[in-house]
Write a structure and sequence with these properties.
binds zinc ion, binds ligand AOF, alpha/beta, Cytidine Deaminase, domain 2, five-stranded mixed β-sheet
């Protein structure tokens, strides 16, 4: 095997390791790190839940003395800043690592090449860019927030075989099967926040929590776009706000049910529009936002160019008369999106569409 093929094989493993903590590391990216000595993995690390410790010191600790002369594979440039933990680049130097292979440079202005410089100045051989595309995809949320000042937006749509998102006045109707629902719960768990419009909140009275065995604590913050603060205090969202946070994005000086909702622990945030809201979310460290409906919110986000990925589920149900048409179906893909992946879940199909160009960073 060539060195590049070996590097790619270990980096693939480091990326797979990083994926295990996506959505659990707060505003920090989930980074994977492997320490490899004589072709053997002697240390493994992934950014801990909450964001610290970082991946590298954990992998180095596991490697112990074996780290001397070894190669480190890291999905992100090792940090150089004195944050809540000492710089990872210095820890790598101190451990006597001979070579570092990095997938993606870190756009965080506190790091931004400085980590690589610390390594090079210590005469460590540095290879950058191995499996860059795959690693960028694995850190899409973090990189989008750092470079665009907003979270990465994933739009999830469940569409009937006749292209409908639901039926007027019918509340939640079954469009996809349980296999798809499980997958949607996994996507929720890997996201930092979930957003719906008030129309969906009123029509469906959803909970928007993660309900998978063993993952009950993984529910991200739930956000409702609700210009007039109309979310009923009796809704499942409002009633559970003390268990899983709810943020209501309202127009400046909206009154509505504000008092009652605040009393239930719902946080009210005044925003001037979608872009403003996304900016506020990014400032709070929210890197990935999953949008679950409805048609209006999906249409507005698409029209403003604020959607990065679409998870399009197509079920075999037929809605017929009174259906709410989806802005996207299998037959009608929005301009500028390409098909990345297609899979089946039970009787449903899921397509993942990605926006092009996938930005300078993704
Ligand atoms: C690494 N390894 O595993 C991660 C890194 O708030 P702090 O001090 O933890 O710093 C957060 C920054 O650290 C984050 O913006 C990114 O630049 C880097 N994340 N770096 O060396 C890791 N998660
Ligand atoms: Zn670090």
């Amino acid at each position: 095997m060539s060195i590049t093929a070996i590097d790619e094989a270990f980096m693939r493993e480091a990326i797979a390791l990083s994926l295990t903590h996506v959505g659990r590391t707060g505003s920090n990216p989930s980074v994977g790190c492997l320490i490899v000595k004589d072709g053997r993995i002697v240390g493994r690390g992934v950014t801990a839940p909450g964001g610290r410790p970082h991946a590298e010191p954990q992998a180095l600790a596991e490697a112990g003395d074996e780290a001397r002369g070894a190669t480190a594979y890291v999905t992100l440039e090792p940090c150089s800043h004195h944050g809540k933990t000492p710089p990872c680049a210095n820890a790598i130097v101190a451990a006597g690592i001979a070579r570092v292979v990095v997938a993606v440079a870190d756009p965080d202005p506190r790091v931004s090449g400085q980590g690589l410089k610390i390594l090079a100045d210590a005469d460590i051989e540095v290879t950058i860019g191995i499996l860059q595309k795959e690693a960028r995809r694995a850190m899409g949320g973090y990189l989008t927030r750092q470079t665009k000042g907003r979270p990465q937006v994933t739009l999830k749509l469940a569409v009937s075989s006749d292209g409908m998102l639901g039926k007027l006045g019918a509340g939640q109707i079954a469009i996809t099967g349980f296999e798809s629902k499980e997958e949607v719960h996994r996507l929720r768990a890997a996201s930092d926040a979930i957003l719906v419009g008030i129309g969906t909140a009123l029509a469906d009275d959803p909970e928007l929590t993660v309900r998978l065995p063993g993952m009950e604590g993984a529910s991200p913050i739930r956000i409702v776009l609700d210009r007039r603060a109309e979310l009923p205090a009796s809704s499942k969202l409002a009633k559970s706000a003390r268990d899983v946070p709810v943020l209501l994005a309202v127009a400046p000086s909206a009154i509505g049910n504000r008092k009652a909702l605040e009393g239930l622990g719902v946080e009210i945030v005044e925003t001037t529009g979608l872009e403003d809201l996304l900016h506020i979310l990014a400032e709070r460290g929210i890197s990935s936002l999953m949008v679950e409906g409805g048609a209006r919110v999906a249409g507005d986000l698409l029209a403003q160019g604020l959607v990065d990925r679409i998870h399009l589920y197509t079920g075999d149900a037929v809605v017929g008369e009174g259906g709410i048409a989806s802005p996207i179906t299998r037959e009608f893909r929005p301009a500028g999106f390409v098909l990345l992946e297609e899979k089946t879940f039970g009787r449903d199909s899921r397509q993942i569409l990605e926006r092009l160009p996938v930005s300078a960073w993704l």
